[in-house]
Amino acid sequence: MNIEEMLSITGKREKSFRYMVDFLNGIENPIIVETGCARVENNFEGDGMSTLIFDAFVGSNGGNFYSVDISEDSVAFAKSKITSEKTRIACEDSVGFLHRFNQQINLLYLDSYDLDPTNPHPSSLHHIYELIAVSKCLKKGTMVVVDDNLNDEIGKGKYIADYFVKIGVPMIYSGYQQIWKI
């Protein structure tokens, strides 16, 4: 399946994934970093399959793609079933991984800690920790994307949105995913 075919079946994420791919198309050899890798085959509507999309992108267009997940099962699935040798997947806590990461990132995709809509605080807090941990690798022009936004008050990116407002980073897209450009 090519990237266009994948994007067309991502449901509520289609518009934002297209935005990301268009952005990446304008960068030679982009660095893409994702937290939370794919865990179920062909779950485009449910999980979005960003791991597969980013792997296909660097396979066709060049660049480097890094993903991190704390689940051994998810990492084993992504490594053995859906990614190529171009993708590097680490099995560890995303905050520590991002803190040690030492390359300038073009696209940061945060989707690691599952959102519980009845108690969104733990997931939202984890995602702001991720942003803080990797902030040294973000430069002017970096795109930051957070998945699973239910509304202005409930979503993985709630605290990131609040923080970016305070420091003047504009949100450029808000839907099921939120996108900012530093």
What does this structure look like?
By secondary structure, the chain is of the alpha/beta class. The chain has one domain: Rossmann fold (3-Layer(aba) Sandwich), CATH 3.40.50. Helices cover 39% and strands 21% of the residues. It has seven helices and seven strands. The chain has a seven-stranded mixed beta sheet with strand order 3-2-1-4-5-7-6, sandwiched between helices. It starts with a helix and ends with a strand.
How would you concisely characterize the structure shown here?
This protein is α/β, with parallel strands linked by helices and 182 residues long. The protein has helices at 3-7, 14-25, 50-61, 72-82, 94-100, 121-134, 158-167, and strands at residues 31-35, 64-69, 87-91, 105-110, 138-146, 171-174, 178-181.
Percent strand = 15-25%
* Structural class category: alpha/beta
As for the CATH topology, it is: Rossmann fold
Strand order of the largest sheet: 3-2-1-4-5-7-6
| Element-by-element helix/strand order | HHEHEHEHEHEHEE
| Gap between N and C termini | 32 Å
The number of helical runs is 7
Strand segment count? 7
Features:
39% helix, 182 residues, 7-stranded mixed sheet, Rossmann fold, alpha/beta
